Amino acid sequence: MCIQTARCHIGIGQLPLRVLASILLLSLLSAVGSAAEQFLTLPFRDSAGVEITEGWVYDEPGPFWCEEFGDRCHKGVDYARPNGEAFEILAAADGIAVASRSPGGYGYFIFVRHEFASDGLHYFTLSAHVERGSWVTPFRALAGVKADIEAGDFSAWMPVLRGQKLATAGQTGIGVGVHLHFEVDRGGYALNKTDPYDIEDTLASGRYPADCGSRYVWTECPPIHASTEPRVRYLRQNAPGEVGKDIWTTSVFCYCDGGGGPGGGLDNEALVVGGWGDLYWALLQFDLRGLPSVAAEAYVELQMYQTRSGVVTPITLRRAIEDWDWRLAGSGSDLERLWWADRPDTEFIRDLPQPVVGERYRIDITDLYNAWKAGTYENYGIVLNPPDGSNRWAEFYSSGHSEPQLRPRLVVIPVAQ
After folding, report:
1. Poorest-pLDDT segment among 45-59, 109-123, 132-146, 235-249
2. CA distances from residue 251 to 125, 263, 277, 320 in whole angstroms, order as listed
3. How does strand 234-237 pair with strand 180-186?
4. pLDDT-derived band of residue 232, with 50, 70 and 90 as boundaries?
5. CB burial class (10 A; 0-12, 13-18, 19+) of residue 257?
6. Where is mean pLDDT largest: 56-65, 94-103, 221-230?
7. This prediction's pTM
8. Strand partners, 417
9. DSSP secondary structure letters along 52-84
10. What single DSSP character describes residue 299?
11. How far apart are CA 400 and CA 369, in angstroms?
């Protein structure tokens, strides 16, 4: 979002010499100080040829009043291509994201909540002026976004990974030309705006942009393009009503009305692996359409939340070699669960380490993913089972969980082109 100075109305090649020198200085400065939170990388690819056209400014005329400095200011960083062309906006860190629209200067924007916090307040990053309809996240009215943050309910938002495309730079809202206005907030929408360079500490130097202060939030400050190029990653999650699916089943008790057998399970918010004289299996299948044909790395992540006995089970990874869908057919009394008799045949892949309660459990499936995409195997998903039923357990959240960031996810990193 440009403040109304001469710099916002001229091309990059026409910028005053002092500004061009400042932009050059930005790429040469080395990190100064340290911070508890250094987690952001550049919100675009180095190859995009994007430059800073306006930084965090306190001491020049503009439309935004900063009471804490007694002057007008620009509380963000503006990026643009010298030729004025659009570019992809990327997530600067992992988080959960939503698109919205401001009736004022932001226009259409993407808001990302990150797990990093300071003084109990979570960091948010905001990317403004994005091209209408270019976002890959859900869209929420601004009132809904504010209500979500106040309630702490982000079920309507979408998990994103660092380096994942969010949208395309545009010129919606108030501003001049195609550009990205990037800012960092703490605690919510347009609250506690934080300078990612922390130049308040060095404002007296009179230099623009100033050296970084002690609480900058970039992985390097100022961020150096060559060292902050994000890896392209694709994220795929299952959700209720989508093609992918997951469920758990058990060999004895059916968990159905009236109890008894012959084995079943539940389609709920959990994926259970373990057993105590019986066996509990978890099955997952992701829709691979639209994902890269060859992966340098592919893995499934599950959030483990408890073990029933206090002892965590080791897990075996298998691939399903036939189709399974409890919603279409089954041998039991209903189509609400995967009956044990209907579980698919499987092929052993390898033994996995024990998961840890409260942590994400990563399962590397690179070879299996590439075999699926090459057509070597049909994608019937994976099966997680225990080595025995000796009262050892691992319970993970399923795709039925209300919070998207806790659901199982498939992450794919393509082979570099």
Report:
1. 45-59
2. 47, 4, 9, 17
3. unpaired
4. low
5. exposed
6. 94-103
7. 0.64
8. none
9. EEE--BSSS--S-EEGGGTEE-B-SEEEE-TT-
10. E
11. 23
Burial class (CB in 10 A: 0-12, 13-18, 19+), 409: buried
CB 22 within 8 A of CB 209: yes
The answer, yes or no, to whether the previous bond of 262 is cis (omega within 30 of 0) is yes
225, 27 contact by CB (below 8 A): yes
Sign of the four-CA dihedral 48, 54, 57, 63:
negative
Nearest alpha-carbon partner for 279 in 229, 305, 318, 241: 318
User: What sign has the CA pseudo-torsion 158, 161, 162, 168?
Assistant: negative
Please identify which residue in the block is written with the tokens 């308040």. Answer: 200
Secondary structure percentages of the chain, helix, strand, coil, to 5: 15, 35, 50
At residue 393, what are phi and psi to the nearest 5 degrees? -140, 155
CA atoms within 13 A of residue 84's CA, in its CB half-sphere: 8
Q: Which domains does the chain have, with CATH numbers?
A: 6-227 (2.70.70.10), 234-414 (2.60.120)
Cis peptide before 209 (omega within 30 of 0): yes
Q: Is residue 202 within 8 Å of residue 139, measured between CB atoms?
A: no
Q: What tokens does 211 get?
A: 């050296």
CB contact at 8 A, 380 and 365: no
Distance CA 156, CA 318 (A): 32
